[in-house]
Amino acid sequence: MPDKKPESAKPSRQTDYSLRQQMATMGRAFMASPLRNTIFWLSGGMLVMILANAGGQLILNRWYRPFYDAIERRDVPDFFHQLVIFCLIAGGLLVLNIFQTWLSQMLKVRLREGLTLDLVGEWLKGRRAFRLANAGAIGVNPDQRMHEDSGHLTDLSTSLAIGLVQSTVLLLSFVGVLWSLSSGFTFHVSGHSFQIPGYMVWAAILYAASASWLSWLVGRPLIGLNGERYAREADLRYSLVRVNEHVDAVTLAGGQVDEQRRLERDLGSLIGVLRRLVTANIRLDWVTDAYGWVTIVAPIIIAAPVYFAGDMTFGGLMMAVGAFNQVHSSLRWFVANINTITDWRATLLRIAAFRFALTRTDELHAVEEQIDFQRTAEDGIVLKDVEIASPSGCTRLKERNVTIAPGRKVLVTGDPGTGKTLFFRAMAGLWPWGSGHIGMPENEAITFVPRTPYFPPGTLRQAMTYPLGENSFEDDELAEALKRAGLERLAASLDRSSRWERELSDEEQHALAFARLDLHRPAWVIIDEAMDMLEGDARKRAAAVLTKRLKDATILYIGRAGLADKLFSRTLHLEKDAAGRSLKPMHVPSPPEKEKPPAEAGQDAN
């Protein structure tokens, strides 16, 4: 597992990447999603359920007057009649609520699917994943953003959107009811009588507005704190995964205490943020809970002067209280959801900034001078004045003008630290910075074999046939390739699933990589030091793959001189110029985390 740096421990200043820009970014992603129509249909069904629910709530509110009037008159038959009506109304609302809940859950699932597919697609487009990893803090822990943050964002967005629409519909439905109920309210003060049209509507608006303003004032710091919390959660998660992935080396080195100290430090950073979140939430709870308690009696107090003056029946009072509560509940939606809104805002910032960074990497990586990398009509590989820029200096090929004809086997070597892996990345098009020309034959598939082999999770058959598909080869072909690699003991395990990078030794993993090369038999191969990791018979078997099974292939092997010189007809040389032109990688803005300096971003492993 490649090492990653944790996200910055300090929140940065806010950038000009505004909420409008974030919403526009996510809106464009949604409109391009293949699940767009499905989400529209689910949203339409949800709107129908909300409207039907609002109608049911209006019917329920009208029921209050005859029910409470029957209680006031002590009319038992009418009392039971109203209870029957209530059961019918409640049954209908129950059915509507169940359907609405189902639709909301399906909407969350589909939004989660669409957002994750979009982020994964953008991340794995072209060379973006590699480039983003070298683009500063925004490229750290992309798994956290695509997995946990995307799921959290869709849950919050769905809940908030449904709640807002429902509150708006109920407000429009009940504000007229409350206005008509309070339009005849007459106040008697010191022998004078006067009326305030829509008295309870204005009271509900003022009451909810004061609560909303105060809640936003107290709860606004939660946006930054939630963003920092998710960054610290990602740091701790990565640290735990890193220790687990390297537990053998940690145990052998006796580094448990040191790793525990690192984990405690990451946990301490998270706990510090959580403590500040607790304090901020408690401040907000003082406001929201206080308004919640007052709301229990507020509508009765507001309507009490009219009721005690004898201008309203008890049933009318309860109907007015119910309408007031519906209007106030709709108006105080912001107050009730301020905590969720700040959480949503912080999560949206992380997701939108991540997606923005994915699309910006292509632009930013075009700023520095780049190697002229082309697919050409020439038969071979052409290298002209190749120089590769990196943060540690310049790596260049001594031979200024090279043509590697089809079928030739060429060794590229250099002293330790000259940048052999960097040259391999440049040949693969992963590292574009530098100058000169690299020409690859068009219409030819080129296989790149990295120094550290990769095996996808799954069966051994899938690991060997990757990326062509498990049905690309017959069992006997797979068994023969394993035998030639000295791994015949694995022939009976073709359909067994395992984490092969954990089960096999380093030498066996490299042998399996050569068995895969043997099986695929590509015509063009570029290898990064893979044979240097083998010793004795294992190296001889790997060499046999190159000289016998791939005898007609064009092979460019990047590695140490002296290990396999006799396999190659030509040797090229790399040299390092530390004083040469160096690279200052462009960094994508990464709100709310502070960007890190470019150290280590592109240092080669040599």
Please outline what is shown here.
This protein is α/β, with parallel strands linked by helices and 606 residues long.
Description:
The chain is of the alpha/beta class and 606 residues long. It has 2 domains: 19-364, ABC transporter transmembrane region fold (Up-down Bundle); 372-577, 3-Layer(aba) Sandwich (Rossmann fold), CATH 3.40.50.300. The protein has 18 helices and 14 strands. Strands 3, 4, 5, 6, 7, 8, 9, 12, 13 and 14 form a 10-stranded mixed β-sheet that branches. Strands 1-2 form a two-stranded antiparallel ribbon. Strands 10-11 form a two-stranded antiparallel ribbon. Strand 12, helix 18 and strand 13 (554-558) form a beta-alpha-beta unit. Helix 2 packs antiparallel against helix 3 (76-123). The longest helix has 53 residues, at 256-308. It is elongated, with a radius of gyration of 34 Å. 36% of the residues are buried. The model is unreliable at 1-16 and 590-606 (pLDDT under 50).
Question: How would you summarize the topology of this molecule?
Answer:
Layout: H1 19-31, H2 36-73, H3 76-123, H4 128-133, H5 142-182, E1 186-189, E2 192-195, H6 199-219, H7 222-245, H8 247-253, H9 256-308, H10 314-331, H11 333-336, H12 338-364, E3 372-376, E4 381-390, E5 393-397, E6 401-404, E7 409-413, H13 420-428, E8 434-441, E9 446-449, E10 458-459, H14 460-465, H15 475-484, E11 497-498, H16 500-503, H17 506-520, E12 524-528, H18 536-549, E13 554-558, E14 570-577
Parallel strand pairs: 3-8, 7-13, 7-14, 9-12, 12-13
Antiparallel strand pairs: 1-2, 4-5, 4-6, 4-8, 5-14, 10-11
Helix pairs in contact: 1-12, 2-3, 2-5, 2-10, 3-5, 5-10, 5-12, 6-9, 6-10, 7-9, 7-12, 9-10, 15-17, 17-18
